[in-house]
Amino acid sequence: MSVQSSSPAARRLLVLAGTTEATDLTRAALAAGHHVTASFAGRTSQPSSPATDIRIGGFGGADGLTAYLRDNPFDAVVLATHPFAARMPYNAAAAAEATGTPLVRILRPQWVPEPGDRWTMVPDLAAAAWALHESHARRVLLTTGRQELAPFARLDRVHFVVRSIEEPDVGAFADADVILDRGPFDAEAEAELLRSRRIDTIVTKNSGGTATAAKLEAAYNENVRVIMVERPDSPAVTTVATATAAMKWLATLP
Ligand code: NAP
User: Fold this and answer.
1) Model pTM?
2) Residue among 44, 87, 147 whose CB has most ligand 1 atoms within 8 A, to mutate
3) Ligand 1 centre and the CA of 42: distance in Å?
């Protein structure tokens, strides 16, 4: 008589990483006995991950990722890049289809305004800069990330407080202070920041999640305007909101 284990078979997973959800998924998958290769674009200087293997750098577009998946067969690909990573979702969708590799995307829910929020939705960063100009913003907390500053540098009548995780280059700005910090932030500290810097407008991408949402609660409480940059388009692929849901999806694979 043979005894069959009820635990799911060990899988080889490629996690397209760069988010908290990617790290959460990696931890959960390792704990379940899976083998995880985590892939990073190389944007941050020192990506850290508990994954079995780490690889860094682009694949060379959809064709490059397809070739990589042919050379390195995986049981599934977990697309866990940032909601504003615009290209990798399309590359992953194309490569998964070309190689027949199951693909799931983890995409945290967007933030949505509540009554009383003073949000202006804009499609991209250039439109956010234009919205600042149109609304005569004077003192702006800019949280869009250090690599997304160029459209704002030409607003020479605005005082910017640029908050980012790694040192940004604000050399092109007429008037900018820098705050180096990473979430999670809490609403009272965010409100104090808005008051002490006399911020009238926050610019943020609609990243969603809890780590950086406190600025929105603080903006509501302090009656500060929010310019909200909407997410880029994404391909139609199986999508879940959390690492836990992605683990459930993995368990359904044949
Ligand atoms: P993107 O537009 O989707 O990607 C640009 C290129 O970077 C891709 O075509 C790919 O190069 C490479 N790439 C992206 N993610 C990769 C990964 N996980 N592993 C290997 N190569 C990857 O994304 P992006 O906006 O430039 O962001 C790059 C990375 O930073 C992503 O991993 C993302 O999760 C992270 N990130 C982005 C933001 C944001 O606001 N955009 C915020 C926080 C973190 P090839 O075509 O050569 O394969």
Assistant:
1) 0.90
2) 87
3) 8
